[in-house]
Design goal:
It is a single chain. By secondary structure, the protein is an alpha/beta fold. Helix 10 crosses helix 11 (282-297). It starts with a strand and ends with a helix. The model has no long low-confidence stretch (mean pLDDT 85).
């Protein structure tokens, strides 16, 4: 945030409250600065050259430009050497400001800058705060202080403007025009002289707030949350779900958490349905993401698939917020009946429910139109920006600040691209496994200062990182044929199909490939989904998705290698068949091959 102040001595009176305004603004942002929410650059005796040089130094980073001092309808009054006046003409300078990528607000806290806002908006500046007359020096400092106090506390720019206006308007000090305006120009009104103006392109958008822009949407909610960091920054086990104790290291979902929280608390929605493919992280999102923040200020109850049978919508049930993970059909009917029939009798109760995409249509069809307010929320795979947050440890870079690790930017950038470029994949389990392996390797090299780098990741890949992921997950599957290789054959059906590299395959096609064994194959498919080796294509839709795909394209080559190296009967017999079916092959099967064939009874 760039704050430029100029107190020109020529042609104008000295502004005694300008230094006070500067000090108060700096004090207001002290906590936000300490929390890495923003950085302030203050130019106390600003010249045009200093302002331009500062914009160039922080190219693309300056969110807000504030000017405090003298001005008129067309110009800002800056300083030169020997306290001489330098006029900055806004009709030309607006074009320079419009080229500053990321600049979202220009605040002209000076006399009669109203007409200048038209130049700024025409140039493309999103939001401008300006005055419509010559303002009083003390009230200018007070208004700016109140505005930035609200902005630093997490209010959006429109809310901050309304708060500052309301506080100034209600203060006994500013109930006369003389207190608000310069005496010689005082209009007969007590209306505050500031106005907020938005460019046409941003009027329909949600007004920005500082925590959101700074990548900390949970900033205002974190006060009161007990944060305890576990010994390991990355959750162990690729199929483990985050729970309440891992709240501090549940990174990458801050924006989604804030959105769902606001649906319940700010908008008062009765039911929020969180849906997405299996393995996307819905359980972790409920337990480690939403639950701690709801518990902080509201009576909250959480149910999972083991405890949902205990849910009884009765008058003795006092929780304001109810979180349910994958409820059964019976529980679904209880919830919908509670919302439709009993909500007004037992008091306001709100539900946040996580379901797989395949159940969304059932909920949708059973809802009674107009009986309650409802939002559906699609939980997608990690985007590159979210992967960066997970790797680095959230907005505060906890991997470095809390765990003392050295993490290379090259690793963050390349790994986020690698895991996000397969757009329909579910990358959360793969990311979790990869980071755990990286951390283990880095701490073996140095416990006090582990180093995570792209070179270390490449070394792990060469040593079989993703082959180990496949074999570990396959070994953990509870199937009828754990050592036969049949599960691996089923998984191999999801390798690249055809020249167009279609990674999806319908369940119907897979079941037809193994006639007579549909129940067993269906069971294997479910287990492959649960272990994160397969996934449903990530898709925001009410349609029931019957297609499956390999969890990520990154597993394709490791899977080929496993098939080639496997000595299990399923793969050995496949190799025998392929060899025997070659043209002009007159070689007979060996005795050992015949024994293998006979022992593999289900083939």
């Amino acid at each position: 945030m760039l704050f430029a102040f100029a107190n020109s001595y020529v042609e104008s009176s000295y502004l005694r409250n300008l230094p006070k305004e500067r000090k108060q603004i700096k004090a207001v942002f002290a906590q936000a600065i300490a929390d890495n929410l923003c950085e302030l650059v203050i130019l106390p005796d600003a010249s045009l050259r200093e302002i331009v040089d500062t914009f160039r130094k922080y190219t693309g980073r300056i969110l807000l430009f504030h000017f405090g001092g003298h001005a008129n309808t067309y110009t800002l009054h800056l300083e030169t050497s020997y306290q001489k006046l330098d006029r900055l003409y806004m009709n030309s300078f607006a074009a320079f400001l419009a080229e500053q990528k990321g600049l979202s607000l220009v605040f002209l806290n000076a006399c009669s800058t109203g007409p200048q806002h038209r130049e700024l908006l025409a140039a493309g500046i999103p939001t401008v705060v300006a005055t419509d007359n010559d303002i009083s020096d003390p009230v200018a400092a007070a208004f700016a202080t109140q505005f930035y106090h609200a902005l630093s506390a997490g209010q959006n720019v429109d809310q901050a403007f309304k708060e500052a206006t309301a506080i100034i308007s209600s203060s006994s000090e500013y109930q006369t025009p003389r207190a608000l305006y310069r005496e010689e120009y005082s209009p007969n009104t007590t209306q505050t002289p500031w106005g907020i103006y938005h460019h046409a392109k941003v009027k329909e958008r949600q007004p920005w707030n500082l925590p959101e822009v700074a990548g900390q949407p949970l900033y205002a909610l974190k006060s009161g949350i007990t944060t305890k960091y576990p010994n390991n920054p990355y959750l162990e086990g690729p199929s483990s779900a985050y729970a309440r104790p891992e709240q501090a290291i549940f990174w990458g979902r801050d924006r989604e958490i804030r959105k769902c929280y606001d649906y319940i608390v700010k908008e008062g929605v009765d039911l929020v349905l969180i849906y997405g493919p299996r393995g996307i992280g819905k359980t972790s999102f409920l337990k480690a993401g939403l639950l701690p923040y709801f518990e902080k200020d509201h009576s909250t109850t959480y149910y999972d698939d083991e405890t949902i049978s205990e849910y009884v919508p009765s008058q003795s049930f006092n929780s304001r917020v109810v979180l349910i993970d994958t409820p059964s059909t019976a529980a679904r009917k209880k919830v919908l009946n509670n919302l439709s029939d009993e909500n007004n009798k037992v008091g306001k109760r709100q539900f946040v429910i996580a379901i797989p995409t395949s159940q969304l249509a059932d909920w949708w069809n059973e809802m009674e139109p107009g009986a309650f307010t409802f939002k559906r929320f699609y939980l997608s795979s990690f985007a590159p920006s979210a992967i960066r947050e997970v790797i680095s440890g959230g907005s505060e870079n906890a991997i470095t600040t809390r765990y003392g690790a050295i993490i290379e930017d090259d690793l963050i950038t390349r790994l986020s691209i690698t895991l996000s470029q397969d757009t329909t994949a579910c990358n959360s389990l793969l990311l979790q496994y990869c980071l755990q392996q990286l951390w283990s390797a880095a701490t073996r090299n140095s416990i006090e200062s582990p180093q995570l780098s792209w070179d270390l990741y490449q070394r792990l890949v060469k040593e079989g990182l993703w082959e180990r992921f496949l074999t570990d997950q396959l070994a953990a599957l509870d199937t009828l044929y754990p050592s036969s290789g049949f599960t691996l054959n089923v998984l191999a059906e999801f390798l690249v199909m055809g020249e167009e590299k279609d990674y999806t395959c319908s369940q119907e096609r897979i079941l037809k490939r193994f006639p007579g064994r549909k129940p067993k194959v269906q069971r294997i498919l479910n287990e492959l989904l649960d272990r994160g080796l397969l996934c449903q294509p990530a898709k925001d839709s009410l349609e029931v998705i019957h297609e499956l795909r390999l969890a990520h394209r990154i597993l394709e080559r490791p899977l080929y290698r496993l098939l080639h190296e496997s000595q299990r009967p399923g793969q050995e017999l496949q190799r025998i068949l392929l060899h025997q079916l070659k043209p002009n092959n007159r070689q007979l099967l060996t005795v050992n091959q015949l024994k293998l064939w006979r022992s593999f009874k289900w083939t």
